[in-house]
Design goal:
Length: 83
């Protein structure tokens, strides 16, 4: 089984500005703390799919507007992996 938390943290670190990478923590707010906008959220979703966590094919309807923190992304990824 993949280490979902590690994968998500790595993906988020890759899409944000280098100067903010030290702020990537579970409780970090994606928009306010890390500067992640809707375009970067799409990039995160695409990278998750590339890693085998298919957020697009999930049976559960995912409301991406409710994802606020790094932990929220990990929770969604874990729920997909466990399906």
């Amino acid at each position: 089984m993949k280490n979902t938390e590690k994968i998500v943290m790595e993906i988020i670190s890759n899409v944000i500005l280098k100067k903010k990478r030290n702020l990537v923590k579970l409780e970090a707010n994606l928009r306010e703390d890390l500067g992640i906008d809707s375009i970067k959220m799409i990039a995160i979703a695409s990278m998750l799919v590339e890693k085998g966590i298919d957020v697009n094919a999930s049976d559960a309807s995912i409301d991406f507007t409710r994802i606020e923190t790094v932990q929220d992304v990990i929770d969604v990824a874990n729920s997909i992996v466990s399906q």
